[in-house]
Amino acid sequence: PYDVLVVGGGPAGASAAIYAARKGIRTGIVAERFGGQVMDTLGIENFISVQETEGPKLVAAFEEHVKSYDVDIMNLQRAVSLSEPGKDGNKNIDLIELKLESGGTLKSKVVILATGACWRELGVPGEKEYRGKGVAYCPHCDGPLFKGKPVAVVGGGNSGVEAAIDLAGFVAHVTLLQFDTVLKADAVLQKKLHSLPNVTIITSAQTTEVTGDGTKMNGLTYTDRITGESKHLALDAVFVQIGLLPNSDWLKGTVNLSKFGEVEVNHHNATSLPGVFAAGDVTTTPYKQIIIAMGEGAKAALGAFDYLIRQ
Ligand code: FAD
């Protein structure tokens, strides 16, 4: 059995595995796809000490760093369930069991959940084609690339309105499109948004297509849900802010999840289940970023080590 078994091979999981292995304890990492969301990222300009890099390049560096320690890497393996000692068919009294889709079972004293999240997509033509070529999901990451340009934000909840306020500070113009008849963000955010001179708010708008010239996006088509009219906006970018989905479905009924499905963690990254820690985008920790996921992964591994030495 492992002392520490990390589930997830994104920045949070890679960092947790390195911190655990450096304590000289038996460490394994299981990942459906090593690298996680970073594999899908083109330009990264906010990973401190590296001015500019690309996702796959950064992932190769994570992998090289993890491999320099004695860590078992089990890539292309999806975890399907977790069972605490003595429960759900787990006959061990002190080991947590992790079942894999491939049929295998792994055992460990401590498990660190780092299965990340994925952005909810619009699901319209052009979205996939122009992803990273104008279609963006993270204003903190890609916002500065569109300084002085016209952009749109889709989504009228807190994240959409926050993104529009943030972007309005440096882009030429922001159009905020909301599907519903009203915005859903907190009143204080809506008030701020309404006070900005370079923001237009369109409610009852259903985005139907992202348009482009074959190399990058150039606009967006939406239907006015009241009149049924189809309209086109010329844009350099669209930020899709309709929700972040934590990869936690497989954990339902084991650890406590928030109403958004995020794994609840305390300051030491412990979950509600003894011996189970969590880090990164799958957790309740705010601001989903690479550097934050890495810091949280380190904290979870140190929390796990503290737990182990007390057993
Ligand atoms: P993830 O990166 O999501 O990794 C999750 C890991 O868990 C993966 O290995 C996945 O395969 C695995 N996994 C999931 N479910 C299971 C399962 N059941 N069993 C086994 N393994 C599983 N952040 C920045 O700081 N700067 C940027 O420029 C930036 N740009 C971005 C651009 C895009 C297009 C996207 C999508 C995100 C961007 N982000 C950026 C956000 C950043 O990528 C995330 O905050 C970060 O990757 C979160 O790390 P994580 O380790 O928590 O999760």
Automatic annotation (TrEMBL):
Residues of the full protein shown: 217 to 527 of 527
Cofactor(s) it depends on: FAD
Annotated keywords: Disulfide bond, FAD, Flavoprotein, NAD, Oxidoreductase, Redox-active center
Name of the protein in its database record: Alkyl hydroperoxide reductase, F subunit
Residues engaged in binding FAD: 3-18, 271-281
Cofactor detail note: Binds 1 FAD per subunit.
Domain FAD/NAD(P)-binding: start-end pairs: 2-297
GO function terms (MF aspect): flavin adenine dinucleotide binding; NAD binding; NADH-dependent peroxiredoxin activity; oxidoreductase activity, acting on a sulfur group of donors, NAD(P) as acceptor
Assembly notes: Homodimer.
Family listed: Belongs to the class-II pyridine nucleotide-disulfide oxidoreductase family.
GO biological process terms, semicolon-separated: response to reactive oxygen species
GO cellular component: cytosol; protein-containing complex
Record carries keyword Transcription: no
Cystine residue pairs: C138-C141
Record has Disulfide bond as a keyword: yes
